[in-house]
Amino acid sequence: MEEFEREVFIPSKKTQVLTSIVLGFAAYSVGTVVAWTAPAIPDLEATEHFGVLTVSDKSWIASIVTLAALIAGPITGFAIDKIGRRKTAIAIGYPFFVSWLMVAFAPNVPILIFARFALGLCVGASSLTVPVFIAEITDETVRGALCNLFPLGITFGIMNTYIFGSFMTWFQLTIVNAAVTFVYLVLAHKLPESPVFLISKGQYEKARLSLKWLRGAMLSDQIEPEIQQLRRAIDEKREVRLSAKEFFSPPVLKPNIICVSLMFFQQMSGINAVIFYTVEIFETSGSNINPNLSSVIVGLVLMISVIISILLIDRAGRKILLIVSDIGMSIALFGLGLYFYLKDEGSDPSLVESLTWLPLASLMLFVTSFNFGFGTVPWLYNGELLPSHVKGLGSGIAVAHNWLIAFLVTKSFEDFIFYMGKYGCYWMFSIVCAVGTVFCVLFVPETKGKTLEEIQNIFRG
């Protein structure tokens, strides 16, 4: 009878979905932090709330988030293993809420930058905690879809920030963002602890209670096979000790290099610089389309393209999405650079006037292409390419590298424009995307339909 119950038990998806949606609020908040500067900085300049903002002020307000996110990674990695996924997720909510209030009531630019730094710590902490948490609480039938709630949540946060920022003042927008983090903080206290974490700490009964709730099980026997499977996987991982020699062996080093390289090309596409300064790009382009409306359109396209990518990633394959993504971004950035070249170099005014649609079209193609492949696939490859016993270390290196390049690009964006001109800046990003295309063709393996063992065999040859 017990065997029959085990065989016919079908885990409920409801509690897994609801738990993932709660964590999605943190992802949404990440998107609001990333996109806030696009509508807020022009409004701050127009109202002169902090007086005249210098180029340095604006670059620090935008880029400090990525620097803080880089710092938060190692701290969060320690926290989720020490105090657990649930407590870390709850702990993130408090500074998230307080930091937004600091932004809203900052008396001067240094305090505003400090508040943005605090938000950046929350961004980095969420970027590590949420994907790990969702992956560990979901079963294999819904894991792929629910893990994509993280990039989808970020995109939704970006889009809504653009929409609200089009008709709200920077202060009103900030209060709305703070309200979202408060909702997350309240709901986070309802989260269960990850069964994987509980088993790793030897708390087997608590792990059973957590997994029963997550799977909608009435009896412990119904989830016992999964508990035993998790115990075996965790015990095997404990037995593995990674040496420096093994880390630099081809089966380990090659996938690590690919993951780090993909993160490099992801950020050197200029995505964060474009998202942070979307409204300003349209204001300086001279386009006759309302800058805030344009940014809303870009946000909508951003979200739609993420959904398309999620639907295609297990059908078309990872590698082809990366290649198409890079080609599209390269063309889009070339088009954006061409418009500013014609505008800034004194070309025929009638020609420039006839091309005022080009900035919006280029940005729409850019964000669509980015999310079509490079917005999602590099994160997926972190989980697929890296061997299980180096996944923590390898993912940490790749994510830290991602935020480091994001900081350097965002902080230097205004300097790039000053020394190279807008067109030179966008053409530089376009060339990087072209080089990224070649890299993907030559070195990135296709993993669609392959088991993790088959993927590892690629690097042993």
What are the SSEs and their pairings?
Elements: H1 2-8, H2 14-35, H3 37-47, H4 55-82, H5 85-104, H6 109-137, H7 143-147, H8 149-165, H9 170-188, H10 195-200, H11 204-215, H12 224-239, H13 244-247, H14 250-267, H15 271-276, H16 278-285, H17 291-312, H18 318-344, H19 349-354, H20 358-374, H21 377-384, H22 391-443, H23 452-458
Helix pairs in contact: 2-6, 2-8, 2-9, 4-5, 4-6, 4-22, 5-6, 5-9, 8-17, 14-21, 14-22, 16-17, 17-20, 18-20, 18-22
Oligomer: single chain
How many E strands? 0
First and last CA, distance: 48 Å
Q: What's the mean pLDDT score?
A: 84
Could you describe the largest sheet, including whether it forms a barrel? none
C-alpha Rg (nearest Å): 23 Å
What fraction of residues sit in β-strands? Answer: under 5%
Say what the CATH topology of the largest domain is: Growth Hormone, Chain: A
Compute the number of structural domains: 2
Count of helix runs: 23
CATH class of the largest domain reads Mainly Alpha
CATH architecture of the largest domain: Up-down Bundle
Poorly predicted runs are: 1-6
Derived from helix and strand composition plus strand pairing, the structural class reads mainly alpha
> What's the overall geometry?
globular
Q: What's the order of the H and E elements?
A: HHHHHHHHHHHHHHHHHHHHHHH
* The CATH superfamily title of the largest domain: MFS general substrate transporter like domains
Estimated helix fraction = over 70%
Subcellular location: Membrane
Membrane topology: Multi-pass membrane protein
Main location: membrane
Transmembrane segments: 21-41, 61-80, 89-107, 113-134, 146-164, 170-187, 257-279, 291-313, 320-342, 357-381, 393-413, 425-444
